[in-house]
Amino acid sequence: SDLTDAPRGPVVERVPAGDERLRLVCDDCGFIAYENPKIIVGAVVTHGDRYLLARRAIEPRKGFWTIPAGFMELNETAEAGAAREVWEEARARVTVGPLLGVYSLTHISQVHLIYRAEMIDADHAAGPESLEVALLTWDEIPWDDLAFPSVVWALEAQRRSVGRSDFAPEGAPERPHRPE
Amino acid sequence: SDLTDAPRGPVVERVPAGDERLRLVCDDCGFIAYENPKIIVGAVVTHGDRYLLARRAIEPRKGFWTIPAGFMELNETAEAGAAREVWEEARARVTVGPLLGVYSLTHISQVHLIYRAEMIDADHAAGPESLEVALLTWDEIPWDDLAFPSVVWALEAQRRSVGRSDFAPEGAPERPHRPE
Ligand SMILES: [Zn+2]
Ligand SMILES: [Zn+2]
């Protein structure tokens, strides 16, 4: 069979029997993909008065700077996932602290759980998804070259909560700076 | 073809090319099901000194009492999802307040985001997934007949945070009362 005949997986939108919402279904095998919002876990990582940022080696927003964050995996806590992402992207070991932000991004159906984390030592290095990693003071942060609005929100949430541990995480602002 | 030959969807565990983790793949159509943790949104709903609880009409834990909670849907905020679940299960309209708990249940790969919510009026009724709904004082809560440990955690988090709005959400206790 040529490529146009190849099975394509769940790509047809339909309301399955007994359901009330459109779901992606596969006409080849009948599988129903119950799409759920996805969880992004990440951290604003500090070492003294410096912030750990990574420059993205992959799309989207390749070449722009971000805090370590990525898709939460199965069978981990949100805090463990945040620490894992810090290790994978910036090769730093951290202690995860309070939740800075819970950002529901409705247009892409993601919930970002961003924690405060402190480095156990100053070691850091670029992981496979990063071009470079840097420990920067607040004034050195490349504000015009940050990858996503939620990076700005989380950095500002950390700045506002310095010295506090018992505070409510913030949500996404009413007007995001830029669609993500 | 008989039933044993029917396509079964993604049921084979394999590490796809370019990936590093086991995923469920479909041998019929090649679809890879990237399973992600799922988000449960819910609320501890109060009206004065009373708590809104629903008795489950569906499995799991049919017949047991719960706070309104369920799977977050696409394209909604976590807060809107919590209010939606309150309406679907207990036919009450609420104002959603601060986050009481963020419970990572690693054995079932769920993250529960449980908010405090206040009823706009006293109206309530059983939705299709509830056998009955009740507004109960703290002492009337059927502690031995609650559906899930996270219901207990969230009720206790609400009790501890009464009168406060700027506080950190709690996580799951180290030793869950009972596997969920
Ligand atoms: Zn298929
Ligand atoms: Zn298939």
UniProtKB/TrEMBL annotation, chains A, B:
Gene Ontology MF, one: catalytic activity
Gene3D superfamilies: 2.20.70.10, Nucleoside Triphosphate Pyrophosphohydrolase
Top-level taxon of the source organism: Bacteria
Pfam families in the cross-refs: NUDIX, Zn_ribbon_Nudix
Segments traversing the membrane: none
Record InterPro entries: NUDIX_hydrolase-like_dom_sf, NUDIX_hydrolase_dom, Nudix_N
Domain called Nudix hydrolase: residue spans: 36-159
CDD domains for this protein: NUDIX_Hydrolase
PANTHER family: NUDIX HYDROLASE 23, NUDIX HYDROLASE 23, CHLOROPLASTIC
Protein name: ADP-ribose pyrophosphatase YjhB, NUDIX family
Organism for this UniProt entry: Caenispirillum bisanense
